[in-house]
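From the shared-data thread, chain only:
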Amino acid sequence: MRILFAGTPAFAVPALEALVARHEWRPLAVLTQPDRAAGRGRKLRFGPVKQLALDAGLDVLQPPSLKSAEAQSALARYRPELLVTAAYGLLLPRQVLEMPVLGCWNLHASLLPRWRGASPINQAVLAGDAETGVSLMEMETGLDTGPVLLERAVSIADGETAGNLHDRLAKLAAEVLVEALDALEAGRLPPARAQDDARATHAPLIAKSDAEIDWRASAARIDRMVRAYQPWPVAWGSLGGASGVRIHRARPAAGRGEPGEILRDAGGRLLVACGEGALEILELQMPGRKRVRARDWLNAHAS
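Structure, as tokens:
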């Protein structure tokens, strides 16, 4: 099968590894976003998908957009039968969607139509969803609106962070892709199911400002924020007179006080009063400092 693969971040790596592992599915080329400057030196760095593709000896294409005739011509030269995307990050225009004879598939980290968009994993944790999963859909020009070919659900564990859930769903996405390709080759791929647009919810791109803590919210809500924005952008707020404090780990606890007030605790815990209940902070990071355990911060703060 003549397959092209498109992806950029770590979420797409297991799916690409699954394709590379099967000779008959080895991609003809990999599309990934252009290299970005990162780190203090602002040096260009390869994304995880590009690094894997280079290590596997695959052709790598990095057009800034797929709308140009030049980019579309580069794809057409491979005569693809199927294009598989996973967290690629660029829109596919109609000319590209119509290019592969078997269509374009997208691996999306939610149970569509819930959480269409760029941050489905974070939004599922933030909303307190009991489950999420992976949907394999046929791509359309709309954002995650295409009919669903396969989906697999998983429970979201108590206390699970978006980072942990991301890793589980990335592995599940690879399993879903393998299952679908096996079914396609065997002629038993089920017909795609149209999405119910009336049940759609949206997961917009996350900004650092989204992770700012308002201590007037409930402890349960702030706990979900801490987990939803881990490992990025990390929930942050004011604490003990300091602003921009990053909260890496926390959990709801009993307690009452003015929102944002550090509560006295005989057990040596760092408790912060919320609009409802209190939040026990387990790990935090002061501006310009390293991440530390809350107990260590309390000891230093007391001295």
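The two ends are 67 Å apart (CA to CA).
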